[in-house]
Design goal:
Order of helices and strands: HHHEEEEEEHEEEEEHEEEEEHH
Distance between the termini: 27 Å
Number of helices: 7
Largest sheet: 8 strands, mixed
Structural class: alpha+beta
Number of strands: 16
Radius of gyration: 25 Å
Mean pLDDT: 83
Shape: globular
Low-confidence stretches: 308-317
Number of domains: 3
Helix content: 25-40%
Strand order of the largest sheet: 1-14-4-11-12-13-3-2
Strand content: 25-35%
């Protein structure tokens, strides 16, 4: 979709020789335009819920809530958080999870550690420990396996024997890695607590967070999980909305002085918004272009198109 959007923008701006938009400028405008539309979906979802409560929204094909929800859910992910120190965990970022968190929805804590040890052999998609008694320990399919040496997390697929279990993905590439197995059956949703209240809660015998009712506090780019015994990777899992990936129109060669689109480049990234938002991307990018080349007509054209185009679900009032 990004190439179609760029072609439309260039066609409109070049019609009256307003000026050429370079790939670097286009990518910058594309990033901002996508973020504008992405954030509109959250306010739009609120409007659709209010419309339902006022009985002004239809059902089935006339529902305005479902399409908006489906777009938002396409950005919903679940990942294990990485501890930075003791019971302090990094919130999702490009470094820790490969994406950035826009909004945390829930934090799940797996509190029952079943077994720790060291792997004694390397077997594809398996954990081998000649000193273990996996069947006796009650290890079951679905339990979480954490390579404490590398931080890689996998889960149990099947129990082969007392000393070998099959994993859903390969987590051990060297002998002598420490591991922990955590029960997937013992899970609790942590309650978000304001930083000003956590000290009082911890000092109370009745309200102190525990493994059944854990809690967490936001602290900069980290969360602090209570009780402090929850402190290993694999014990805290976050469900959150991520930011859309930064779009990038890429090219490899020049033909007649013009860059040629090449989506095979390793840093190529298309828009992550649905196809019906293509015209909104074009009009928003045109606004930025008009400001850049100091042509009010281009800016006004983009704004006018947004007002007169048939509104999508994300623009419902």
């Amino acid at each position: 979709m990004i190439n179609e959007v760029r072609n439309a923008v260039l066609s409109i701006t070049n019609k009256n020789n307003y000026g050429y938009i370079s790939p670097s400028d286009f990518n910058l405008y594309a990033k901002n335009a996508q973020m504008e539309i992405y954030e509109e979906y959250y306010s739009s979802y609120n409007k659709t819920i209010n419309a339902e409560n006022l009985r002004t929204s239809g059902t089935e094909y006339a529902s305005i809530e479902q399409p908006v929800a489906e777009v938002l859910e396409s950005f919903m992910v679940t990942n294990y958080l990485t501890p930075s120190a003791n019971n302090i965990y990094n919130i999702p970022s490009l470094i820790t999870t490969g994406d950035e968190s826009y909004m945390l929805l829930k934090v799940l804590c797996y509190t029952n550690q079943l077994r720790t040890g060291t792997n004694t052999a390397i077997l594809l998609n398996s954990l081998v420990d000649s000193t273990a008694l996996f069947t006796t320990y009650g290890i079951a399919a679905g339990d979480i396996v954490v390579n404490l040496t590398t931080g890689v997390v996998s889960s149990v697929s099947a129990i082969v024997s007392n000393t070998t279990i099959t994993l859903t993905s390969s987590a051990f590439l060297a002998i002598g890695n420490s591991y922990a197995i955590i029960s997937a059956a013992t899970v609790a949703e942590a309650e978000k607590v304001h930083a000003s209240k956590i000290t009082l809660l911890n000092n109370s015998l009745l309200t102190a967070p525990n493994t059944i009712y854990p809690a967490y506090v936001m602290q900069g780019q980290t969360i602090v999980v209570y009780p402090s015994t929850i402190n290993k990777k694999g014990q805290v899992q976050a469900n959150y909305f991520r930011y859309p990936k930064v779009p990038k129109w890429t090219y490899s060669t020049l033909s007649d002085g013009s860059p040629v689109f090449n989506q095979s480049q390793p840093d190529y990234q298309d828009f992550e918004l649905p196809t019906e938002d293509e015209y909104k991307l074009v009009t928003k990018i045109l606004e930025y272009c008009g400001i850049s080349i100091r042509e009010t007509e281009v800016t006004q054209f983009g704004m006018a198109q947004q007002q007169h185009e048939q509104p999508t679900f994300s623009m419902q009032q």
